[in-house]
């Protein structure tokens, strides 16, 4: 009873955690009787625990020695427990993290590393010697089990476990218990109407036969079938694959495999039947995948279009706890197919949808069965003459076939397109590949057998010359031919043949990359030239490659374009041209790199001044050699300039010297015509800007050799500006000298400002769009401004960049209008209540000068100077607060048509009178807001006058 307790409780945990457990009886002999009395209850608890867990699989087992509680968690995280015993010390052997650990009561007693190079824990390699020492794969681990004796448990001549005796009590341990099989999961090869399935195949083909052959330039020939395959068949063993859990299970733990089958959706014809005998000797487990080989009864399998489906499952008998148990898989379908039209294919081919077949394996070029097909073609692969490992040709071969359904109603219906068998799958279908050198010669005079320069070890080809022990350099350039035969394993009958031509090369000779750093140079108007000279070629190219000059140029040639210059990448700069030797004994220039000013300027603008160009020498006739490249690099120094210190007249500049202001001509000066034009030179000392260089520059960029001009900066593009008509306009730089604008979303651009580069003048334009933008804000707010840039240009039309050349040009609104206060209307007056327009509003110009006469100036002349055409009320948009309405939004005309506010004489100075009349009932006091619009030479400006309407007189 004691032994059963140990086996059931502790070795159950061992099976899950790869942990070997023992119970120590020292100091607990008095408890044995008590435990024996409790065994009946323990067995009942364990049986209940087993029922609770069911078939879900076990995830973890824990035992609390203090409480005697055993807890098992299944795969669905359901926890079940029972109380078994208390305070029983436990010895455990755990294999964790590459170590064997001995614990007592959960505390480590000793541990040791498993021997090196263990691919993964194999319980069959865990053994114990007579001294109680734990060994793994024959090597001591350093862990010892407390024991007085050990006995081996054997079965069929093999050690399957041990019996440990501790204080007179025996405890058995079975090796298989450390990692028992718990589940089998079918791995489908296909799906049959959505059901996981495997196929039972019959292979049909017509055999090939070799013709008599005498060495020739076109190679051997075979009698190859052209008609559909039909003469020969292979009915291979059936093979099914199952995932095993845990992954470390071995075939040593499996004593028997049985496959049974049944027909589903077909009632009453037969019971479950054995679908075939499993050959256990052919079965194997690798990487957690069980390969089951059986001699199937294909006649018992339903056809693919039958009204029923044949399904099967696998039962595995495994050794556990000195006995056995059965593990059963899920059900999977099995169906019959016919495989035929086998052809060898190039596994490395990138052709789609089907990979190219081996030469001679099909009749695509009317050369089926003929080595000539491969001889005429380029080599399929290469091998270096000194590569002792050779090239494995099996990596270049796979087998293609066509699959046809075995149906009741129709025969010969192809399933899908051409299918593939990998080399690893061939044996499952009774097939194998055989590789043989195929003789042919090149050269009618010498008739050299190309295949005599190689030998085959299975599928591995190496360069070889009979009698030569060193690396066969003489084999370089030879092209041996290999015949690949797809054979039936049982008797070697040939199913298909193809040929592979291999080129023997010198081997990969590494390429060489040399960079010539040409340093920095200053931008100029002239081409910049650099050269690679003869001695540089000797040191950096010939010497490093181990070649003479003559050898190098015999092997390599410069890759050139249609103009004979080195072929460069699209991102390279300039031109690299070759220079041939006029005299072989004289030092000469071999390559020349030429950079135009445009190349240099482009690098400054787009690549931070970095220029590069790579010339490539390619092998002429030897693909095994890498390219030799010579890369030129340099950096273009970009000159820059700025305004000379003190060049700007400080008082003409605003916003920390970053902008100027443009106004109309001052009345009584210059042209005295309110022209909106300004000479930007006038804001600089001497009426002309002066400049200085910020860094070193070539002669072409000295200040004395450059001229300046003003342009509209690109930053103006797509800038939005609000017009006083409520429209948002978008700016557009039409040219260096023209700034335009259009309503947002429109391309109907109108001119806004122009620059005369000859005079330095900037002029605002006279049109509706320009005026709307100009009159939105006054000079004391945020007047409309454009960004102007100063460009310095040399004699070759290259720009000298300015670091501070950009500035704002603000256009000041010429006229402003403001409301006067204190004016009102009285209701009920004879002929209405009137106020003069110039008593309601007043005008100023961009200097804040009022349009009135003072001691300093006569502003009354400004009406004429600024072309004030009218000052008029906007009658339709007068608003009021009658009936407690919103004074800002409630229009007077919407409330009543009997109250009228009108104007006379709006188009001539003094711009008339505004009269209020009420043609109906008495009215109490209220307020009105009257919009006023001033129209003048440069557009319109607007304001609003708030006035009180006093109540009807006498009321």
Q: What's the helix and strand layout?
A:
Blueprint: H1 2-17, E1 19-23, H2 30-53, E2 58-64, E3 69-74, E4 79-83, E5 90-96, E6 99-104, E7 107-113, E8 126-128, E9 133-136, E10 139-144, E11 149-155, E12 158-166, E13 169-174, E14 183-187, E15 190-192, E16 195-205, E17 209-210, E18 222-223, E19 232-234, E20 238-245, E21 254-264, E22 273-278, E23 284-286, E24 289-296, E25 309-320, E26 323-328, E27 332-346, H3 372-376, E28 381-384, E29 391-392, E30 397-406, E31 411-414, E32 419-421, E33 431-438, E34 441-442, E35 448-449, E36 454-457, E37 460-463, E38 481-488, E39 494-505, E40 512-522, E41 528-533, H4 534-545, H5 549-555, E42 556-558, E43 575-578, E44 589-595, H6 597-606, E45 610-619, E46 628-637, E47 641-643, E48 659-662, E49 677-679, E50 691-693, E51 707-712, E52 720-722, E53 728-735, E54 738-743, E55 750-756, E56 761-764, H7 768-774, E57 785-793, E58 799-800, E59 806-811, E60 815-819, E61 824-826, E62 833-836, H8 837-840, E63 841-845, H9 862-865, E64 870-873, E65 879-880, H10 892-895, E66 899-904, E67 913-918, E68 926-936, E69 939-950
């Amino acid at each position: 009873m004691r032994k059963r307790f140990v086996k059931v409780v502790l070795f159950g945990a061992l099976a899950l955690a790869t942990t070997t457990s023992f119970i120590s009886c020292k100091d607990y002999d008095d408890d044995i009787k008590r435990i024996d009395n409790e065994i009946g209850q323990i067995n009942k608890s364990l049986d209940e625990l087993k029922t609770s867990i069911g078939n879900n699989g076990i995830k973890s087992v824990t035992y609390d020695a203090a409480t005697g509680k055993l807890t098992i968690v299944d795969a669905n995280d359901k926890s079940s427990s029972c109380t078994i015993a208390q305070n029983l010390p436990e010895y455990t052997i755990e294999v964790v993290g590459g170590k064997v650990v001995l614990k007592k009561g959960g505390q480590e007693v000793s541990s040791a590393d498993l021997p090196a190079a263990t691919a993964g824990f194999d319980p069959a390699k865990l053994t114990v010697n007579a001294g109680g020492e734990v060994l793994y794969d024959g090597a001591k681990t350093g862990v010892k089990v407390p024991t007085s004796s050990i006995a081996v448990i054997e079965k069929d001549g093999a050690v399957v476990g041990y019996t440990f005796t501790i204080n007179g009590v025996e405890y058995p341990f079975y090796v298989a218990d450390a990692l028992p099989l718990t589940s089998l999961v079918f791995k489908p090869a296909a799906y049959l109407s959505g059901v996981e399935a495997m196929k039972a195949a019959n292979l049909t083909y017509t055999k090939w036969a070799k013709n008599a052959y005498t060495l020739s330039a076109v190679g051997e020939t075979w009698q190859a079938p052209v008609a559909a395959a039909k003469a020969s068949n292979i009915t291979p063993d059936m093979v099914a694959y199952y995932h095993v859990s845990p992954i470390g299970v071995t075939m040593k733990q499996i004593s028997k495999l049985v496959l049974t089958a049944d027909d589903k959706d077909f009632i009453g014809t037969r019971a479950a039947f054995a679908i075939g005998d499993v050959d256990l000797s052919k079965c194997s487990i690798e990487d957690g995948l069980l390969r089951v080989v059986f001699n199937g009864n294909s006649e018992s399998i339903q056809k693919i279009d039958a009204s029923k489906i044949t399904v099967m499952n696998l039962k595995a008998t495994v050794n556990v706890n000195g006995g056995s148990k059965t593990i059963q898989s899920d059900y999977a379908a099995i169906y019959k197919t016919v495989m035929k039209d086998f052809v060898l294919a190039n596994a490395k081919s990138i052709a789609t949808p089907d990979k190219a077949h081996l030469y001679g394996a099909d009749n695509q070029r009317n050369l089926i069965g003929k080595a000539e097909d491969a001889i005429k073609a380029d080599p399929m692969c290469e091998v270096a003459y000194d590569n002792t490992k050779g090239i494995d040709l099996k990596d270049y071969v796979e087998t293609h076939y066509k699959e046809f359904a075995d149906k009741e109603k129709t025969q010969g219906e192809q399933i899908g397109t051409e299918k593939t068998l990998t080399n690893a799958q061939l044996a499952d279908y009774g097939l194998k590949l055989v590789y043989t050198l195929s003789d042919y010669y090149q050269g009618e005079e010498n008739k050299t057998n190309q295949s005599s320069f190689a030998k085959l070890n299975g599928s591995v080809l190496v360069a070889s010359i009979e009698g030569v022990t060193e690396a066969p350099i003489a084999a370089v350039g030879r092209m041996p031919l290999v015949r690949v035969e797809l054979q039936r394993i049982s008797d070697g009958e040939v199913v298909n043949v193809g040929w592979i031509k291999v080129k023997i090369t010198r081997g990969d000779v590494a390429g060489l990359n040399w960079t010539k750093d040409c340093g920095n140079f200053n931008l100029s108007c002239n081409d910049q030239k650099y050269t690679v000279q003869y001695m540089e070629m000797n040191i950096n190219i010939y010497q490093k490659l181990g070649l003479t000059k003559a050898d190098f140029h015999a092997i390599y040639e410069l890759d050139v374009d249609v103009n004979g210059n080195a072929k460069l990448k699209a991102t390279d700069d300039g031109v690299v041209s070759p220079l041939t030797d006029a005299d072989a004994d004289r030092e000469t220039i071999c390559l020349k790199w030429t950079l135009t000013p445009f190349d240099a300027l482009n690098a400054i603008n787009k690549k931070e001044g970095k220029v590069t160009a790579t010339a490539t020498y390619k092998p002429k006739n030897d693909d095994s050699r890498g390219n030799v490249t010579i890369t030129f690099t340099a950096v273009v120094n970009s000159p820059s300039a700025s305004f000379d210190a003190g060049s700007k007249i400080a008082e003409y500049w605003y916003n920390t010297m970053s902008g100027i202001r443009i106004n109309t001509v001052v009345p009584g000066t210059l042209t005295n015509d309110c022209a909106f034009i300004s000479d930007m030179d006038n804001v600089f000392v001497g009426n002309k800007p002066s400049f200085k260089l910020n860094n070193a520059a070539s002669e072409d960029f000295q200040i004395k050799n450059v001229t300046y001009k003003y342009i509209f900066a690109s930053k103006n593009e797509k800038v939005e500006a609000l017009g006083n008509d409520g429209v948002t306009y978008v700016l557009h730089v039409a040219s260096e000298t023209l700034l335009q604008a259009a309503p947002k979303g429109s391309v109907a651009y109108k001119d806004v400002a122009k620059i005369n580069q000859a005079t330095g003048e900037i002029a605002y334009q006279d049109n509706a769009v320009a005026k709307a933008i100009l009159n939105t804000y006054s000079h004391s707010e945020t007047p409309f401004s454009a960004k102007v840039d100063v460009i310095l240009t040399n004699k070759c039309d290259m720009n000298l960049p300015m670091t501070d050349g950009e500035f704002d040009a603000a256009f000041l609104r010429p006229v402003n209008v403001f409301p006067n206060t204190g004016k009102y209307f009285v209701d009920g007056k004879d002929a209405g209540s009137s106020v003069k327009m110039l008593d309601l509003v007043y005008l100023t110009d961009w200097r804040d000068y009022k349009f009135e006469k003072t001691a300093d100036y006569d502003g009354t002349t400004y009406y004429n100077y600024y072309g004030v055409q009218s000052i008029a009320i906007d009658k339709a948009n007068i608003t009021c607060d009658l009936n407690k309405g919103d004074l800002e939004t409630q229009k007077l005309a919407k409330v009543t048509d009997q109250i009228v506010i009108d104007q006379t004489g709006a188009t001539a100075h003094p711009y008339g009178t505004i009269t209020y009349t009420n043609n109906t009932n008495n009215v109490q006091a209220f307020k009105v807001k009257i919009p006023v619009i001033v129209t003048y030479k440069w557009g319109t400006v607007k304001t609003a006058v708030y006035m009180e309407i006093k109540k009807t007189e006498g009321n």
